[in-house]
Design goal:
The chain is about 35% helix and about 25% strand. It is of the alpha+beta class. Strands 8-9-10-11 form a four-stranded antiparallel β-sheet. Strand 1 (about 1-5) and strand 2 (about 10) form a beta hairpin. Helix 2 packs parallel to helix 6 (about 130-145) and helix 5 (about 105-125) packs antiparallel against helix 6.
Length: about 230
């Protein structure tokens, strides 16, 4: 990435999630021996690799070079990039109406929504984008769309679910409706009524607020499961 203030190309890590658990140094006087953590919304954040000490895990490979980042920041958006952005934004409604979006985890849906918002904001601003800015927006939209992996639970009989099938649907509901931010910690769960497997009751509670019930509604099982 090319730093606009210094006009210097540097290598950054892109934090793909917006919420991260971090140590609170103000309330952790004995850091790093003991420390308190809190959930922080970092937004669409980047961290300089030179500020990070590698401890363990997979080594990451850069997706571009310092030279290409610097050159790209000075070249106007290319015609094919404009076409790519138009196509990606043009299918947003289709993506959001798909099962892969609706049944993805709230985190993956949020990541896609924010990528769409950022791209639409840039396009609507009428500001001339650089090829580097366009490349990032295109990468972001494609990456977060590809990570949408929602799928219905496969069951033997839609009218008579097994206990394991109900459990699988329940786990899917938790993934879809669970949401953990600095302001709320939502937990959604399904309850099937005896003798009726075609619907279930969805209850959403806020665990940050003494498990207060936020909403309760009846859901169709067919929106979460299909016959195998």
């Amino acid at each position: 990435m090319c730093n606009a203030k210094t006009d210097k190309s540097e290598l950054y890590y892109h934090l793909t999630n917006h919420y991260h658990t971090m140590a609170n140094l103000k309330t952790s006087p004995d850091f790093p021996n003991r420390f308190n953590t809190e959930l922080v919304d970092t937004g669409d954040a980047f961290v300089k690799t030179s500020d990070v000490n590698f401890f363990s895990g997979k080594k990451l490979k850069p997706i571009n070079t310092a030279a290409s980042a610097k050159d790209g920041s000075k070249i106007a958006i290319l015609e094919n990039q404009e076409a790519d952005l138009k196509d990606l934004l043009g299918k947003v409604d289709s993506v959001k109406n798909s099962v892969k979006y609706k049944l993805s985890s709230s985190l993956k849906r949020d990541n896609y929504d924010l990528a769409v918002r950022d791209a639409q904001t840039q396009v609507n601003s009428r500001k001339l984008m650089s090829t580097a800015e366009a490349q990032y927006l295109i990468w972001s939209l494609k990456t977060y769309e590809s990570e949408l992996d929602g799928a219905k639970v496969k069951v033997g009989n839609m009218n008579k679910l097994t206990s394991n099938e109900k459990l699988a649907i329940g786990l899917l509901v938790i993934s879809v409706y669970g949401k953990n931010t600095d302001k709320e910690s939502l937990y959604g769960y399904a309850k099937f009524n005896k003798g009726n497997d075609k619907t279930f009751t969805l209850t959403i509670e806020d665990m940050h607020n003494q498990n207060k019930v936020v909403s309760t509604k009846t859901m169709k099982t067919s929106d979460f499961a299909q016959k195998r």
